[in-house]
Amino acid sequence: MKILSRLALIPAVLAGVGLSASPASAHQYYQQEFTVCYKNSDCNMGFTSGAVSWPALCDSLEPWPCAPTIDGRVVNRLGSSYSTTAVFEGFNEAGTKVFGDSRTVADGNKTFTTVSFPEGTERVKITVCQNWEDGTRTCGLPENYSGGV
Fold first, then answer.
1. What does the DSSP 8-state code read for residue 107?
2. Alpha-carbon Rg of the chain, whole angstroms?
3. 149 neighbors 17 (Cβ within 8 angstroms)
4. What is the rounded distance in angstroms from the CA atom of residue 112 to the CA atom of residue 103?
5. Which helix (H) or strand (E) holds 8?
6. Is 62:78 a contact under the CB 8 Å cutoff?
7. Does pLDDT of 38 surpass 50?
8. From CA 59, how far away is CA 109, in angstroms rounded?
9. Could you give the 3-state DSSP secondary structure of residue 143?
10. CA distances from residue 9 to 2, 20, 30, 45, 117 in whole angstroms, order as listed
11. What integer pLDDT is reported at residue 12 of this predicted model?
12. pLDDT averaged over the chain?
């Protein structure tokens, strides 16, 4: 009976979320758009933007795995003496880091395709950092995105 009640929730869960499905796949996803800046009040020095895509039933009905992806871009001020790095980290339900990756651009705009997180990722943290000429790095405040519908 518990399984039937969970199955009855599927249309309600899907109706409340903006979903997209690719023609080649029956899997549905919802997206969280993001813009994360080095200086949170001003994106002039560098930022990343894009979308975190989550499986539509991620974290709403067990045992469906969570395996989010990110597509987007990293932007650095033209003619600057520093580069901008977007850092992507994934965490499981217990809060343990399970993934880390980054994308860097030295001058201008860099589009990246599909940063893939492992199954079990429940939260994605995105941080933007500046890499200075003297080899040091400073980072802005991170933004967190979670897979719960």
1. S
2. 18
3. yes
4. 8
5. helix 2-15
6. no
7. yes
8. 34
9. strand
10. 11, 19, 17, 45, 27
11. 35
12. 79
User: Is 49 within 8 Å of 34 (Cβ atoms)?
Assistant: yes
Reduced 3-state DSSP string for 22-67? CCCCCCEEEEEEEEEEEECCEEEEEEEEEEEEEECCCCCCCCCCCC
For the segment 69-80, the average pLDDT, to the nearest whole number, is 94
Lookup result for tokens 């869960």: 13
Q: How many angstroms separate the CA atoms of 137 and 56, rounded?
A: 36
Q: Which helix (H) or strand (E) holds 126?
A: strand 123-131
Kindly report the pTM of this predicted structure: 0.77
Residue type, 34: F
Question: What is the separation of C-alpha 114 from the centre of its chain, rounded to a whole number of angstroms?
Answer: 10
Distance of CA 54 to the CA centre of its chain: 9
Side chain identity at residue 127, one-letter code: T
What are the two backbone dihedrals, phi and then psi, of residue 33, each rounded to the nearest 5 degrees? -75, 150
